[in-house]
Amino acid sequence: MSLPDIFSITASCSYLLATLAIVTRLFHPKGPNLVLVLLLGCIGIVAHTIGSSYYIFADNNLSFSLPNVISLVSLLITLLISGIALKFKVNLLLPVVYGFAAFWQLVIFFVPTGTETPLISENIGVISHVSLSLISYCILIIATLYAFQVSYINYKLKNKNLLAVNHLPPLMQVEGQLFTILAMGTLCLTFSLVVGFIFLDNFFAAANAHKMFFSFTALITYSVILWGHFKQGWRGHKVLVLTIIASFLLTLAYFGSRFVKEFVLK
What we know:
By secondary structure, this protein is mostly helical. The chain is 74% helix and 0% strand. α6 runs antiparallel to α7 and α7 packs antiparallel against α8.
């Protein structure tokens, strides 16, 4: 077993323990032991970071193969949600992000890494586009998780199930955070597309046509959600459905073709 594999297994076990620590006490009268949960989560994040650095910076190349990108995205989302948990109650989100990170670290352990596609570039425009794309995707996925949390709290309140929301934040607070995060992610996505248009020569090439179509469609959908909320008062189920659609489109743009190329047509 190689050193990166050891870190991946360590991260997976830590994330899994953190998930169990919060799920088993989610409806406990005193709530989950947040100190224990975040301690286990931090151990997982550290091991995840070290393990991912070995895979991404393999053989002095910057390797952005699909498993590595998903691992990096899950790391960023886990780090952001853990940071948010220090100030706000996100008990519903923590087991989701920790659970997915645990699962993907196991995938990284079993997926062969010898067929990675390296990306080597000193072009600041390319690096900026890739970085902004990853950041915007992570932020918008977090917004999607928040949309689920808003819908869950709203559903439980309508059914007068106060026990289920006892250790969750107020509905209006979560909803406000949702649209703040959604606006930030939409802005980052806009900047990433503008940077790509300016600096990438093949931005509108035929090979990237589907990526541009799904990316711009997702951007328009996110923008419509924000317009609908602030101008028309949209909230609840409509926002959740549109956010899921937009995130699905963005996922297709970022990972759809790469999955086909790296796994289906390999």
